[in-house]
Design goal:
Elements: H1 2-16, H2 21-24, H3 40-58, H4 61-67, E1 68-75, E2 81-83, H5 84-89, E3 98-107, E4 110-118, E5 125-134, E6 137-147
Parallel strand pairs: 1-6
Antiparallel strand pairs: 1-2, 3-4, 4-5, 5-6
Helix pairs in contact: 3-4
């Protein structure tokens, strides 16, 4: 009985220090920087970001506005501020853009998504989005764009 308890304590200790984490990870560690793991929030906000990108590419202003908070504001890379309607009217060539390096951080009732929006013409943008809860759904409240 005591040896079983000691083995369990040992396993809990070993796994809590992360010594066995690489053996169970979905991807191997890269350059000693830890293990890349797709979290639940990364999946949820990856879908939301791609849905917004697709609606923009299709020119579906109603679908874009549905995802935006009424007080939405965009701060562009060239230091302009766009309102919700101006952002919805923009039609970037989103069909060829893709999201990479998505990271999501939950802060109370908000979530902060950070990613690079890659473009085939090399004009990649670094994006920081602030999403706010609205019931069970999320709405984009604030976006910061900067040249990558």
């Amino acid at each position: 009985m005591r040896s079983v308890l000691l083995r369990r304590i040992f396993l809990i200790g070993v796994t809590s220090f992360g010594w066995l984490t690489p053996a169970f990870a979905s991807e191997p560690p890269t350059g000693g920087k830890g293990v890349n793991v797709m979290t639940r929030y990364m999946m949820v906000f990856g879908k939301l970001e791609n849905k917004l990108l697709a609606a923009q590419g299709a020119g579906d202003k109603a679908a874009v506005i549905a995802q935006l908070n009424p007080f939405f504001e965009l701060n562009t890379y060239d230091h302009k501020r766009l309102t919700r309607d101006a952002f919805a009217a923009r039609k970037p060539n989103s069909t060829q853009r893709k999201i990479s390096g998505l990271r999501v951080y939950e802060v109370g009732e908000n979530a902060i998504a950070n990613f690079v929006l890659q473009s085939p013409d090399g004009k990649d943008l670094s994006i920081v989005d602030v999403w706010s809860r609205k019931g069970q759904d999320w709405q984009l409240r604030l976006r910061f764009e900067s040249n990558y």
